[in-house]
Design a protein that fits this description.
One of its GO terms (cellular component) is membrane. The protein is of the alpha/beta class. It is built from six helices and seven strands; from the N terminus they run E-H-E-H-E-H-E-H-E-H-E-H-E. Helix 4 links the parallel strand 4 and strand 5. The chain starts with a strand and ends with a strand. The structure holds NADP nicotinamide-adenine-dinucleotide phosphate. The site of NADP nicotinamide-adenine-dinucleotide phosphate (NAP) has 31 residues, from helix 1, strand 2 and helix 4.
C-alpha cells in the first residue's frame, strides 16, 4: 500500500503546495475546516496517480482530531503528519482582541499539539513515523506587531525540540520548519506585508521542504 501524508491546512497556501509536492510520491490526506476549499484542492491534485482525499476537521478541536485521525489510520498507511494549519493577526499587542489572541493560540499551538499527540500511538505501534511542524522565522525571534503570533510559534518550537528528545530511539522523527514570508492567502486580510511580490512562492518553499525531508530535526528555509 502506498504511504500517506496528512497535511493540516491543506486547502490553501503552503499546505496546498506541500500537497502538490508530496502527491507526486505519496497518497495525501488534507485536513481543514472549509469543505469547499478542500474539495477544490482535491480536484486540482487528483490529476496524478496517487490518491488525494480530505477530512473536514478543526485541528484545534481535541475530540474532532482524535476521531478524524483514528479514522484515517484505519484506512491508510500514514508515515508523515505535517502540522501546517496556522493563523496570524498582526497588530500592536494593545489592539488585539481576546478573540484574536485565542484564535492564534488555539490554531497554532493546540492545532499542532493535538494532532501530534493523536498520531503518536499509531506511529509507536508501526515503529516509524514523522511529525513535521511548520513554524516560521517568528519562532526564532520577536517581531513588531507579531507578539502573540511569535509567542505561539516559539511555543511550537519548544514543543518540537522537546519531542525530538522525548521520541529519540522510537523511530518517530519530529521536524521543525522555519521560513520567512510566503505569498499565500495568509496575507489577504492585512496590510502587515507591504509588498507581497518580494515573498517566496509557497511552491518554492514546499519543494525546499520536500528536498530536505530526511528525518532531520530542523529545516531552515530562512533564518
Ligand atoms: N504566509 C507566510 O508568510 C508564512 C510565513 C511563515 C510561516 N507561515 C505558516 O505557514 C502555515 C501555512 O500558512 P499559509 O501561509 O499557507 O496560510 P493560509 O493559506 O491561510 O493557510 C492556512 C490553512 O490552515 C487552515 N486552518 C486554519 N485554521 C485551522 C484549523 N483550526 N484547523 C484546520 N485547518 C485550519 C485554513 O483553512 P480553513 O480556514 O478552511 O480551515 C488554511 O487552509 C501557517 O502555520 C503559517 O503560520 C506562513
Amino acid at each position: 500500500m502506498n504511504k500517506t501524508v496528512i497535511i493540516t491546512g491543506g486547502g490553501s497556501g503552503l499546505g496546498l503546495a506541500l500537497a502538490k509536492q508530496y502527491s507526486n510520491e505519496f497518497n495525501v490526506c488534507l485536513i481543514g475546516r472549509t469543505e469547499s476549499k478542500l474539495q477544490e484542492a482535491v480536484r486540482t491534485l487528483s490529476q496524478n496517480n496517487n490518491r488525494v482525499s480530505y477530512q473536514v476537521c478543526d485541528a484545534a478541536n481535541y475530540e474532532q482530531v482524535q476521531t478524524v485521525l483514528h479514522a484515517i489510520f484505519e484506512k491508510e498507511s500514514v508515515h508523515l503528519l505535517i502540522n501546517n494549519a496556522g493563523t496570524g493577526v498582526f497588530e500592536p499587542l494593545n489592539a488585539l482582541t481576546k478573540e484574536d489572541i485565542e484564535l492564534m493560540v488555539n490554531t497554532n499551538v493546540y492545532g499542532t499539539i493535538y494532532p501530534s499527540q493523536a498520531v503518536f500511538p499509531f506511529f509507536k505501534k508501526q515503529g516509524f513515523g514523522k511529525v513535521m511542524n511548520i513554524i516560521s522565522t517568528a519562532g526564532l525571534r520577536g517581531k513588531v506587531n507579531e507578539s502573540v503570533y511569535c509567542a505561539t510559534k516559539f511555543a511550537v518550537r519548544g514543543f518540537t525540540e522537546s519531542l525530538v528528545k522525548e521520541w529519540e530511539g522510537t523511530g518517530i522523527f519530529p521536524t521543525a520548519v522555519y521560513m520567512g514570508g510566503m505569498d499565500t492567502p495568509f496575507w489577504d486580510e492585512t496590510d502587515h506585508i507591504k509588498d507581497r511580490s518580494r515573498l517566496k512562492s509557497p511552491e518554492t518553499v514546499a519543494k525546499m521542504i520536500f528536498d530536505q525531508d530526511d528525518n532531520r530535526s530542523e529545516i531552515f528555509i530562512d533564518r
